[in-house]
Amino acid sequence: QKEVEQNSGPLSVPEGAIASLNCTYSDRGSQSFFWYRQYSGKSPELIMSIYSNGDKEDGRFTAQLNKASQYVSLLIRDSQPSDSATYLCAVPGYSSASKIIFGSGTRLSIRP
Amino acid sequence: KAGVTQTPRYLIKTRGQQVTLSCSPISGHRSVSWYQQTPGQGLQFLFEYFSETQRNKGNFPGRFSGRQFSNSRSEMNVSTLELGDSALYLCASSLMDGDRDEQYFGPGTRLTVT
């Protein structure tokens, strides 16, 4: 059974600091990784996709992938109160049992 | 380009009733997946449809069913509702781009069963 593990948090970070969110996955064959942001009461929003080892930057967000260690992380620079949300890590399911497997999410709180 | 739309947004039903939820994918997206999200269980995969065929199915009872139409719009149906079916039901669409299949979610339908 493929698994995606995240620290549930809450992770509290001061405004302006770097927030670091981590995710580990069990299947070495996973090739694609996605980060979703979900505000309370809203649906998940895709914010980053990463397919190759290394870093991928998009604005204040940087996704880091290390396939050898089977972890993927999301860094948020210059954290803003609007970044307070739950962040979900996801990988494709590669089976008929699930289209995509989500971690349980990390709650991030940016304190002023 | 318009995003994924879901109707209705909110629904209150009584135990034993049935409900039908609708999802219109992003234009050009042919894959539609459904998820159930509850505070205790997180995001759970229900099923995926592509070209009017169910491709994948999660571990849910047969009371949960779905279908997809030729225009890629999809519906899911829950029969004989139970209190535990109260949840946010999310639809996501994608292009079906192999491993790099990015899913985009609709706003969801919040179902309350009383």
Protein described:
- The complex is a heterodimer of chains A (112) and B (114).
- Chain A is mostly beta strands.
- Chain A has strands spanning 4-6, 11-14, 19-25, 33-38, 45-50, 54-58, 61-66, 71-76, 85-95, 98-102, 106-111.
- In chain A, β4 and β5 (45-50) form a beta hairpin.
- Chain B contains no helices and 11 strands.
- In chain B, the strands form 2 sheets. In chain B, strands 2, 4, 5, 6, 9, 10 and 11 form a 7-stranded mixed beta sheet that branches. Chain B has a 4-stranded antiparallel beta sheet with strand order 1-3-8-7, with no helix packed on it.
- In chain B, β4 (31-38) and β5 form a beta hairpin.
- The radius of gyration of chain B is 13 Å and the shape is globular.
- The A-B interface holds A 31-32, 34, 36, 42-46, 49, 51, 88, 92-93, 95-102, 104-105 and B 31, 33, 42-43, 45, 48, 55-59, 88, 90, 99-108.
Q: How helical, in percent, are the residues of chain A?
A: under 10%
What structural category characterises the helix and strand content of chain A?
A: mainly beta
Mean pLDDT of chain B: 94
Content-based structural category of chain B: mainly beta
What gyration radius of chain B follows from the Cα positions, in whole Å? 13 Å
Kindly state the number of beta strands of chain A.
11
Number of helices of chain B: 0
- Sketch the major β-sheet of chain B: 7 strands, mixed
Q: Count the E strands of chain B.
A: 11
- Provide the succession of SSEs of chain A: EEEEEEEEEEE
What amount of the residues of chain B lies in strands?
Answer: over 45%
Give the CA-CA distance, first to last residue of chain A.
40 Å
Shape of chain A: globular
- What's the rounded overall pLDDT mean of chain A? 92
Order of helices and strands of chain B: EEEEEEEEEEE
Low-confidence stretches of chain B: none
Low-confidence stretches of chain A: none
Radius of gyration of chain A (Å): 14 Å
Net shape of chain B: globular
Biggest interface goes to: A-B, 24 and 23 residues
